[in-house]
Design a protein that fits this description.
mainly beta; about 0% helix; 7 strands; seven-stranded antiparallel sheet
Length: about 90
């Protein structure tokens, strides 16, 4: 299933986001950018209060259209944690 996320930058370091598609997913996103002369790092927290789903994305901004890093979430009924690489 494809996803479409809209992100709004609040200031140079903070942003928020919501899914455009799927439209019925009430997840909200909050993120922070950390910039230095060596590059820009990011962290994004996703919360779906309806289902209890939580996820954390952390990594590096490689270019305006490319990110790399890791993704972890609480997925299973027992709160199983998954960890995946962001390509």
């Amino acid at each position: 299933m494809p996803y479409e996320l809209i992100i709004i930058q609040l200031d140079p370091e903070h942003f928020v986001g919501r899914y455009v598609f799927p439209a019925d997913d009430p997840s909200h996103f909050q993120g922070t950018l950390y910039s230095s002369p060596r590059g820009t790092l990011f962290s994004i927290r996703q919360v779906n209060e309806k289902t209890g789903y939580h996820a954390l994305y952390v990594g590096k901004v490689e270019s305006p259209t490319s990110l790399s890093g890791i993704f972890t979430d609480i997925a299973g009924p027992a709160g199983d944690v998954r960890l995946r690489k962001i390509p």
